[in-house]
Description:
The complex is a heterodimer of chains A (369) and B (279). By secondary structure, chain A is of the alpha+beta class. Chain A has helices spanning 42-50, 72-75, 92-102, 107-121, 136-148, 166-183, 194-200, 218-223, 228-233, 362-365; strands spanning 4-13, 16-26, 31-35, 57-62, 65-66, 77-80, 154-158, 186-191, 203-208, 211-216, 240-247, 255-260, 263-269, 279-284, 289-292, 298-307, 312-318, 321-327, 338-343, 349-352, 358-359. Chain B folds into two domains: 2-56; 63-268, MetI-like (MetI-like fold, Orthogonal Bundle), CATH 1.10.3720. Chain B has helices at 2-36, 40-43, 58-66, 69-100, 106-115, 125-132, 141-165, 169-178, 182-193, 195-210, 214-219, 228-233, 243-268. In chain B, helix 1 packs across helix 13, helix 4 (69-100) packs parallel to helix 7 (141-165) and helix 8 crosses helix 9.
Amino acid sequence: MAAISIKGVCKKYGTVSVLRGIDLEVRDGEFIVLVGPSGCGKSTLLRLIAGLEEITTGEIRVDNRVINELAPKERDLAMVFQSYALYPHMTVRENLRFGLSLRGIPRERMEMLVQGVSEKLGLTGLLERKPRQLSGGQRQRVAMGRAIVREPKAFLFDEPLSNLDARLREQMRYEIRRLYLELRTTSIYVTHDQVEAMTMADRIVVMNDGIAQQVGPPQELYDDPANLFVAGFIGAPAMNLLEATLREDSGAPGDVTVMIGSEALAAVQRPSSMPVTGRVIAGIRPERMSFGADANGIPAEVDLVEATGIGMIMHIKAGGQLLKIYTTDRIKFRSGDRLAMHIDPLDLLLFDVDSGKRLRPLSQGAAHP
Amino acid sequence: MKHCLKVRLYWILHYALLALFVVFALFPLYWLVKVSITPNDLLYSEGVRLWPSHTTFAHYVSVLRHTAFPLFFRNSVIVAGATSVTSTLIATAAGYCFSRFSFTGKFLIVGVLMVTQMFPLVMIVAPIFRLLSPLGLTNSLTGLVIVYTAFNVPFATFLMQSFFDAVPRDLEEAAMIDGASRFRAFRSIIVPLTLPGLAATLGFVFTAAWSELLFALMLNSSSDASTFPVGLLAFVSKFSVDFGQMMAAGVLALLPVCAFFLLIQRHLVQGLTAGAVKG
Lengths: 369, 279
């Protein structure tokens, strides 16, 4: 097990910058998930840690030792690939043994380790098979086995579940997490699936455009996103992001009213930095909105109702903008029905239109610089 | 019913066309064998018969006993064997390099390799002779091996590169993370997976070197260093052509190539990489 420290890491391919100054401290035994849209640089960062690509500038340390110049084999890390990358001409047993034999581990000990891992992962009956004779889930398990059998300093996962169907993905997600809790080996896990990120991570790193947008525990990222990108990326259905204006004529001193179109959404505390134009993006989670058929509230019209089984996603129009409400109530609204929305001002997050940065209320400004 | 008939007609036509092609391709070989066992006295009197009224192995016996053919044969085995092994080794290294690395001058090198394939070899027979002569490499098998290797490496390299391109990078990266050096990953993971490619390249270069006539004729004038294509010409004299012996020698020359392909055909079968990646 090891702590991994990443300082100012940049990666350029020719003139194209893929990573633009990544700083990250992965604690010993921590499960970190790198999440972001494709092309955000998350896989590149993982490959830099593994030693499969060269770092342009910056420094990566494993257990306080700089590993920038070390060959992959000297780093003692293990990686699980999206494609599994099982050696097709070797049996499962040989696949598991390959890394051990390269390290000169005696035969008896090697057999013992292979046996132990295959029991742990339910591979005992498959040891003499070739990868092409295995199902997707079994291949995934062999890939996991190959990583853990060596007892490396850290695991690197590169979208390991992307090739599996939804059910199997859910099951493997559980198995990986369970295995991690058992082994407690430092893990860095890359995915574009935010559900995987939310369910598996101790801390999530949300990446976009080669920059770490926010680092934090899943719930913190969900409740308290640092910018528009994180707010829009984390959560399904996604956060409603509305074009709004701030009006300074609300009753209480230090408050402003958030308006969408001509409708007043809520009165909130004045942000620490008030935009000159008064224009902001107002964000609210679909499940934090309530509604009713009564007259008090923001008037809205139902556009479309989607049933997900466990709940409903209601697309509604209010103040000339489209937004979603998520509810687990069995509702009877149909397209064209009119209703009234209610918003708790504390659930309303404000973002700067130009920079996308979160506009925090004056009182919170000091707590969250 | 009508549909069934149509399907049957389709397959009959299908196999008829295939059969036609096979006959077209194999007929010269058949004729080679047929003439090689036709006695000289029947060669012209029964020239167009599909099978002679009686057969003989006399031509084979005289080729093996009374001509220098066994020597030519040995020379050809040495030249084609050495050329195919050397070319394949170089092409494997170069092809892997082109497939996996990007480096300064790569485009130029690939361009130059392409250019070497673009002009007729007859053009450079004289300069090559002038180059090899002072080095003592004319009338020598080594000279032929060098020339053949030089001419076969570019195509063999492109061939090998395409086989390496088909092997996912993930596999060698996994091996390197597992603790292998790049060379070890190449040896333990990539080479076993490109055996079909290696076999194909080896076969391609072997047949090219085995049947080459132009340079073998121009560079080596002594019969000690002649290969069998040159030897076949010896059956053509000023006033006659000894067809029987020539064909017998031809059949003998086919044997090693057939044996070689029998040996490697197991590896020519594709599909070894199935199951490596994805589900």
